[in-house]
Structure formats: structure tokens, C-alpha cells
Amino acid sequence: MRIVEVDGRDGAVFERFFRVREEVRQAEQEFPAGLGLEEARLVFAAEHADERSDGFGLVDGDTWLGIAWLDWSLQENTHQVEVELAVDQQFRRQRVGTRLLEEVKERTREDGRTQLSGSALGDPVTGTSAGTAFAEARGFARKHSELHQVLELPLADATIDGLERQVPGYDLVQWRENTPREWLAEFADALTAMTRDVPQGDRGLEITRWTAERLLDREARRIAQGRFCHTTVAVDDGGRLAAYTQMGGNAAAPDRLYQYDTFVRPEHRGRRLGRAVRIPNLRSLQAGLDHPAVLHTWNAPENAAMIAVNDRLDFRPADHRISFQLGL
């Protein structure tokens, strides 16, 4: 068996790497979700200001047994590496996952980092699976859990109409791929506030500090990857951004759509602003939808307000995403 390096520039090697990951995800998830092939290739092909990604496969002859995908943060949380392992079903229980993990540990130490982070899917009720058992057997500790919920689209217009509510004292502003220049600083500040406020469990992560420049870079990357995004924000009487939500997807996988962040500043909570921005944003997303799709979202169980909004929309639970960490 040998290690094959993957960086996104070798098309045939990267496609084989990606297919192993995708096949494992499809076998294990009721609703596979993730990056498309070209979207992932662009992530690997270049180093960005805030992160880089690379990986490798464990190969026997021409057969790919499993892969490791590594995300290296370059601004915050530079003490850790985010890792995803995927082992072909027919090669399970043959120490393939263990071999991959040992190689990951060695690379992490060589880079001077001291912690591995990763996640595994668990049953929507028990939160357990073969993936969680693998992690715990190798010393990873559970640090956080998120409930993965899904909603089949399109919804009937009458359903959306019945949920839409206006909140007095706030105006809604919407945009698509690019944040309007006049909102860059305010939106970057709201993104930073969201990372400070969102439940993180015991992961001890540093706050992601957004700037207008970082936001522009991320939007340019998203567009280059073929991804699209719908944004709706609520603006208070003083002209400050009080709440926002984002939804989107990738044209290469039109049946997979995502509810990204929804955030309400603490001083504006209790007025149903989360719902006030999400329903118009869903209407915007669905306006161009001419085929069935599934909308995915993840929330920490303690984020009861957002889960309540999802329940009103008839999202249903699919699984739990359990976050693990291992000190090196």
C-alpha cells in the first residue's frame, strides 16, 4: 500500500480522491451533502488568505482504499487541523482508517500543530454511529453536537405566505452574490458577532474576525466555485444591520441547497427577526427553483429559537453531526 498526494492540480488523481469521499458519504447519509467536484478542486488548487486544503489517499495497486481530507486554518485556530477520513465500505475493519489517521497525526506534528478536529455523523436520536465509535476508540473526545435537519422543496406559495411576518421598525434588504459596497463593513461586523455568539460546545475555538477584504475574498472564491447565495438582512431605524440569513448552493448539484447562517444581534432578539428574514430569503431562493431539491441546515440543540423556526417550516431531523478533538 502507498500514499498518493492530492492537491487539486492533477485532474485524474483528484477526481479519484473525490469519488471515494463522495461514495462513502452517499453510502452513509440519507441526504448526501457537500462540495461538488469542481468546487472541491478549486479549494485544493490554491492557498487562500485564511485557509488551505490538501489530502492524500491510501492506495493498493490501482485500488483506492480510503482518503484523508485536511483543512489548515491560517488566521484563527492555527493550533489545529480539521480532518475528514473516508474508507471504502469493502475495506472497513482492515486498519485502513487507522493507517490514514497515523499519517494525519505525523503531518500535523510536522507542521507544529497540537490538535486534530473532525466530525462524524450520528443517529438523529442516539447520536451514535460507526464513525463516532471509531473516533472515540482512538481517543477523540466529543466536544459539540449539531442537529442536521432537511426540508423538501419547493414549498407551496401558500405555505410561505402563511409564515411570512413583517416586524415593525425594520426594513428588509436583499442581495445575491456580492454584498453591496455600502453594507460591507456592517455585514463583516455581523459575521464576526455571529462567530462569537453561535454555540460552540467545548471546542474552544477562536472568534473568526471578518473584515470587508476577507468578505470580498470569500465571495470571489464562492463565485469561482460556481456557488450561489441569497442574503436577506433586517435593518433597524438607525440604519444598523440587526439580523441576517443566507441560503445557497452550487449549480453543479442543484438538488442540494443549504441554509447557512441565521443571526440576530442580542439587543434585537425576542421579536421574531430570525423568521422575518428567513421566510423572504426562502422565497428568493425558491423563485428560481424549477426542480425538487433538499434544503439542509445544522443547529446546536441549545439553539432552540432557530430549531423552532425550522419546525414551523416542517424541517425533519436527518442526523447529528458530532464534533471531536484529539490533542497531540
Question: How would you explain this protein's 3D organization?
Answer:
The chain has helices at residues 11-28, 37-45, 96-110, 130-137, 157-163, 184-197, 212-224, 273-287, 304-312; strands at 2-6, 51-60, 63-73, 80-87, 115-122, 141-153, 170-175, 227-236, 241-250, 256-264, 293-299, 316-327. The chain folds into two domains: 2-113, Gcn5-related N-acetyltransferase (GNAT) (Aminopeptidase); 150-320, 3-Layer(aba) Sandwich (Aminopeptidase), CATH 3.40.630. The longest helix is centred in the N-terminal third of the chain and has 18 residues, at 11-28. The protein is globular, with a radius of gyration of 20 Å. Strands 1-2-3-4-5-12-6-11-10-9-8-7 form a twelve-stranded mixed β-sheet, with helices on both faces. Helix content is 33%, strand content 33%. The mean pLDDT is 90. It has nine helices and twelve strands. The relative contact order is 0.17. It has 328 residues and is α+β, with helices and mostly antiparallel strands. A hairpin with a 4-residue loop joins strand 8 and strand 9.
